Amino acid sequence: MRILGIETSCDDTGAAVVEDGRILSNIVAAQDIHLEYGGVVPELASRAHITLLPRVVQQALDTAQVTVDQIEAVAATVGPGLVGSLLVGIEFAKGFALARGIPWVGVNHVEAHLVSAGLEADLQAPYVGMVASGGHTEIYHVPEPGVFRRVGSTRDDAAGEAFDKIGKLLGLPYPAGPHLDRLAREGRADAIPLPRARLKGDTLDLSMSGLKTAAKLFLEREPRPIPDPRIRDIAASVEKAIVDVLVERLGQALSRFEARAVTVAGGCACNTLLREETARLAAARGIPARFPSPKLCRDNGAMIAHAGSLAIQRGQTTPFSATAIANLDSFSLLPV
Ligand code: KG4
Ligand code: ZN
Predict the structure, then answer these.
(1) Can you tell me which residues bind substrate (predicted)?
(2) Together in a domain, 107 and 256
């Protein structure tokens, strides 16, 4: 099946054509209008999607060398995300599908991250997956195709927020995650003692706020500008503290649930140490670790197309009455 995937849940405008699990094109236009505000401005994001989406879709069709008539289904993100932004992609997808007389399928954004590694490598249920990005840090068990059970999530900041906020205190540009990663490669991870939150009880939830506060207090005492070898040590220590918390929870999830693979997706899945430690965890259990390539880690249309075609294969399409759900928490994502 040749499917068009549309992603407009936040500030990236994405469109992709995927044919039988093969990516023919995957175009993402980032919206730099938000940079001067230091965060995403929802109204500006929706307006930018309206301008960008038709062009991004055309580029996706051109790159894939397919015409509108050769598209057999359309998928778009229905949530979670910014309502105004989601609506742009959803209504475009519905209009496209109605005009062509083809099915449309509304996709849960988190579910799309979870299955995204399956575009590049074998990823079969049962598996355990983590989505770690600027907006999400959640662990899922996928016991069978199409069933996504959230088994843990952050109680406060997302992992990406922790990288970005601590990185900002270090004077790094936004988003700080990739810069911190680069600095950390040449630093000593045991240079600075930082806490790893231990939540009470039998939970796979996690917390980043204690670490963030500790890093803030610690950094207030550092002379400015922080000299070179020192900043690398701090970056490595911060990265290790964040990754330790994530990987400990992943390990606990793997002990609790049947899994023949583990996957980590979302922007933070680009992190070098997170990949290394997750790969080590998986190797110790004799299962593969699957990470999407960097282009598929960030928000993109290909993962939406892929999740959409998996849903269609399971016999799920979406009625035209369905629309955006900002805090979408269900769909095929089932709570435990
Ligand atoms: O999925 P994503 O592109 O978008 C949103 O969450 O909206 O994730 C972006 C997040 C940012 O917080 C960024 O700092 C983080 O992913 N990130 C990284 C790395 N690359 C991106 N964090 C740590 N190490 C990286 N290499
Ligand atoms: Zn995302």
Answers:
(1) 131-135, 164, 177, 181, 271
(2) no
